Amino acid sequence: MRIAILGGSFNPIHIGHLILADSVCCELGYDKVLFVPTFIPPHKEMSGCVPAEDRLAMVRAAVSSDSRFEAEPCEIERGGVSYTWDTVLYLEEKYRGRIDGKIGVVFGEDLIGDYDKWEHAKELSERADLILACRPKYSEDNGEFCNSPTERYGKNPMPGVTRGNFPYPHKIVMNPKVEISSSEIRRKISCGGVWRYLVSEGVFHYILEKRLYGIRTI
Fold first, then answer.
1. Whole-angstrom distance, CA of residue 45 vs CA of residue 4
2. What integer is the mean pLDDT of 76-97?
């Protein structure tokens, strides 16, 4: 079984995440994509974040209808700052004897400039298959709904690095560029905008039920 992991805050998970996972399976031949909600991301200060348990529940709701997708709670259960290196080591042990090849690590092109600052970046690139995904550039300023980079990240990215010249072994997935971000969804929910079909049906109903993100009555 070929396994890839897609980590993130998933605050909330949206259809763009699902389209990316589908692309990883269809284009690169992975059998399963594990969605790994981070507990505390190392690279950003999360804005408007709901409890980890709610983010995990939304991931479970989003992936429940596709047997190729699964929510993996290890980073939330581990607590503390969530490092991909630790997660890969954990999953190698959890799936020992069932994995074909290396675990795939999927992340967007918005993160490649700071990849050299990741924990055990070189070792991770050798131990796992790095999979670089397309991600749209967002021009709209969502103010209080945007995340901020932590002190270690976002200050001195590798100059001129793109998916084409990324200096670590990697694969590229040509996923559709879907103009959606979790911060924009949070803004729409809070301000009474249109967002229902930017998330899966299960996530939509979960947000309604739990009254997340300052939702107004629908």
1. 25
2. 97
